[in-house]
Amino acid sequence: MMERTCLRVRSLVLVATALFALPGPGRGQHEEAPPPAAYALEDVTVIHVDGRQEAGLNVIVRGGLIAAMGPGVEIPPDAMVLEGDSLRIYPGMVDAHGRAPVELPEPERGEEVLSWDPPRDMQGFTPHRMVVEYLVATGPDGREPRRAGVIGAGIHPEGGMAPGRSAAILFRKDVEAPRDLVARPDMGLHFTFQGARGVYPSTLFAVMAHFRQSFEDAGREGLLLAEYERDPRGIVPPGWDPDYEALRDAASGEAPVFFQANSAGDIRRVLGLAEEIGFRPIILGGEEAWEVARELRSRDVPVLVSVDFPAPQEWEPQEEGEEGGGGSGEDELEPAAAREKERLENAYANPARLVEAGVTVALTSGGSGSDLREGTRKAMEYGLSEADGLRAVTSVPATLLGLPHISRLEEGLAANFIVTDGPLFQEETGVRYTFVEGALEEGSSDGPEAGDEAPTVDITGEWEVEVSAQGMTIPFSMSVEQEGDAFSGTMRSAEMGEARIRNGSVSGNRITFTLVLSGPQSMEARARGTVEGDRISGTGSGEMGSFTFTATRGPGREGGTP
To answer: Given CA atoms 402, 406, 408, 412 in this order, what sign does their dihedral have?
Structure first.
């Protein structure tokens, strides 16, 4: 009897910690509630990057891995069940030109700088520099990407024609050191046609000449080093230049060069340099890549297309009533608006045209961290298929970053996936959960927020509630009164006392509310749910824990419209 009583007390403590775990005065980091031993998703549909869909699966995440996945897989008693209707599992999205906090050093401008012979950092020519050495991001910095369903990114240094070497990171949740985010510290060089300010090379012509001369000098140094190693007699020991060594690695084709280029002319310049020197290019940006799609395909050059599309300034599509790339009325547009319309629609259609031509395409935020799903939806409106869109934000960028395994959904592999409440690219679909190597982040959206739609349900009444956290369940009774799209009430438990329901809102059949537990120290938790008749299911969290809940209405009030 004593053991059962102790177990019950521990259960209540765990549930209370997950439910009301906002930090208070005197609380230390070491007192945070630990994550559950396992997570479970029941009766979900798994969508693979090759187009396969498996419905009715149970998925268990334990120890950072997909421990089990299949129909009828038993739910472990210590697993937190993540509830939701019609949930789908997709591979996590990867932003191959993403964003994370980086602190690169500023060039040192001495008084005796010669404009025709400046130091390399003023030229923006530091190909030896590795961006991971200046990465300052930690786990919390990845919260917003994780909430949006992005699990990893390519990080490219900025600041000149050859600012350094790019890296791949995973947005791991519970890490405190920047190095713990790194998945690949050296993916290859990052080049641009950006000239230096006030010193050589400042023009496009000069930048092209500097690239050619630098690769020539790097090759010459490599020959001297090889000859000295073969027979040092009669040869002054050659010096070692880390920038030239990086260029030789690129010229050998061992590592790719991520080359920023948007116009068709610049892309052709990249292809010409690559053929001349021997490096293996990957185009970053590629706004006009569709114009050179045939050359890109014939040389097997991938394009990381930015879908951080600029907002129209002169052209107003809404006033034209256009949808999905259609519409007429060009004759009614002012010349500036007509030119902008043509440019933007070409940009929107760029990914579809490249895929149709056989070019390898990944979609990125262009280093802005903007919404990948929104950009992909726009590309789909202009011809990109849903299947190609999924690959372009999952398996293609993961492979180009050298991390193909993170897009595979299989037992035994790391749990890197997102859980949605509908098709990934539908605008109303919310990202419910994101897993990065088994660590859970609740999504940024659970469908429309309260207030977006008129209520279609009335939740007034008495409810029996079960709250689950840390593998434990505790019953509550709940009394709710709804007026219009707002509601309030209380939740009660014999063991934990009373919690007030504040800021309750109803949008369609979805609800959001805040729970406030009174006592010596007030604690809060935020929750959301979906109402179906006399049943509510949902999730919630405090700062240090999450929970799920189900509620069933008792007799005396039938579910229905208000």
So the answer is: positive
